[in-house]
Design goal:
Elements (H helix, E strand, L loop, with lengths): L4 E3 L14 E4 L2 E3 L5 E3 L2 E4 L5 E4 L6 E2 L4 E4 L5 E3 L12 E7 L6 E3 L3 E7 L4 E3 L3 E3 L3 E3 L6 E3 L2 E4 L5 E2 L11 E4 L8 E4 L2 E4 L3 E3 L7 E4 L3 E4 L2 E4 L3 E4 L4 E4 L5 E4 L4 E5 L3 E4 L8 E3 L4 E4 L7 E4 L4 E4 L2 E4 L7 E3 L4 E4 L6 E3 L12 E4 L4 E3 L3 E3 L3 E3 L8 E2 L6 E3 L9 E2 L1
Parallel strand pairs: 1-4, 2-5, 3-6, 4-7, 5-8, 6-9, 8-10, 10-12, 11-13, 12-14, 12-15, 13-16, 14-17, 17-19, 18-20, 19-22, 20-23, 21-24, 22-25, 23-26, 24-27, 25-28, 26-29, 27-30, 28-31, 29-32, 30-33, 31-34, 32-35, 33-36, 34-37, 37-39, 38-40, 39-42, 40-43, 41-44, 42-45
Length: 396
């Protein structure tokens, strides 16, 4: 195909129904002076089919069309291959539909990406700016490297888990009020997770969605978990979640955060200028800090649920308030045994409690290079119990 190709009839997605206009090809060669406008489906059937583009990528318009690869080793290629950079992102839909063997899904910048049929190998640096569609009957998805949702508008994160878990997952570029969301099922991330600071619209886990983080993770934009049975899990000993870059994380309306990781120095870190807040809608948010897990708070940790019975700390868990500036908020804790701090440690500047502070297994006032005070407001108290006789209740 070295001539001008124009396919103008608009069609539905081939993943959903047969196209009205269909060009079947072994290869497509678009020369330096060629132009392709696709409003139907270009289907490649050969195992190693190539869509070669030699001229400007702007000479290929697939915004209203579909490109389908049925071959297991097909690819975009040429001197100026489509989708190799963000500026050459492939419009419309690209679908990988091999049924007879393992298929390699080429890392590209896609607008809409779809997979169906046999097992897929999805390599490093796949970017999707609108929708990612996984047909129900699709074989295993083997992710190796970065998969990024980088659209400016609302995007749904596909809940991949088990053998189909993401390797590395990143969220980018949403505009204000254009929130990315995980709904109704579990997305597991085996490797790193990043909610990028440029993801202005933030990321929300809701409607029974579960984000399962299994390694180093960081959120530099708004992150929330909202609704019963929705959760963010940091429950592998290789897992850590950092809330950074003056961002906020919230749990509310039954949304839950579970931290069950021995990662050192802490599995859950709230950096200076950042906030982790537990809200008050319905049953409020839920926070669980499990045995031998630690939380470092340099920023702000607040629980607005009046009874404070929605935050749970096991005896051997540690919450450290480590801000070096004076006046760091020290979040109150309930007197019910499950809701008392396990081990509370204070480091750095002075601390100011916002209510009664109950501790079941030990207070460690660690002066380091900053001797400091803990101030309890009028009519409040700090109570230190001795649920574990092997621990010294108060240490300096």
């Amino acid at each position: 195909m070295n001539a001008r190709i124009i396919i103008t009839t608009l069609v539905a997605l081939v993943l959903l129904q047969s196209a009205e206009v269909l060009v079947q090809a072994q290869d497509c060669n678009n020369s330096s002076c060629g132009k392709i406008v696709n409003g139907g489906t270009i289907r490649f059937t050969r195992k190693t089919a190539q869509f070669r583009n030699e001229g400007s990528t702007s000479n290929v318009n697939n915004d209203s069309g579909t490109i389908e690869f049925r071959g297991t080793n097909a690819a975009f290629s040429g001197a100026n291959p489509l989708g190799a950079q963000a500026v050459s992102r492939i419009g419309g839909y690209v679908i990988w539909t091999a049924t007879d063997s393992n298929q390699i899904v080429q890392p590209r910048y896609y607008t809409n990406l779809g997979v169906s049929g046999s097992n897929k190998f999805i390599g490093d640096s796949v970017f999707v700016s609108k929708s990612y569609l996984v047909a129900l009957s699709t074989g295993r998805r083997n992710y190796s490297g970065l998969f990024c949702y980088d659209g400016t508008g609302v995007q749904s994160i596909v809940p991949e888990h088990g053998l189909n878990a993401y390797d590395k997952l990143e969220l980018q570029h949403s505009l204000a009020n254009q929130t990315k969301a995980l709904l109704a099922d579990t997305a597991t991330v085996r490797g790193t997770f990043l909610n990028n600071a440029n993801n202005i619209g933030g990321f929300d886990v809701r409607s029974k969605g579960v984000l399962n983080l299994r390694s180093l993770s960081r959120s530099n934009a708004t992150l929330g978990v909202h609704g019963d049975s929705s959760a963010i899990l940091v429950t592998d000993n290789n897992a850590q979640l950092i809330i950074g870059d003056s961002s906020t994380m919230s749990a509310d309306n039954g949304g839950r955060v579970d931290v069950n990781s021995t990662f050192k120095p802490a599995a859950f870190i709230i950096n200076f200028g950042s906030t982790f807040s537990i809200g008050t809608v319905a049953t409020g948010g839920q926070y669980h800090l499990f045995a031998n897990s630690a939380m470092n708070v340099e920023g702000l940790y607040t629980n607005s649920f009046t009874a404070l019975t929605n935050a749970y700390y096991e005896c051997s868990s540690t919450v450290r308030y480590i801000a070096t500036v004076n006046g760091q908020n020290l979040q109150a804790s309930a007197n019910a045994q499950p809701n008392r701090y396990g081990i509370l440690e204070t480091i750095g500047g002075s601390k100011l409690a916002n209510g009664n502070v109950n501790i079941k297994c030990g207070l460690w006032v660690n002066p380091g290079t900053h001797p400091h005070t803990i101030t309890m407001p009028r009519n409040t108290a700090m109570a230190i119990y001795n649920d574990n006789p092997e621990l010294t209740p108060v240490r300096y």
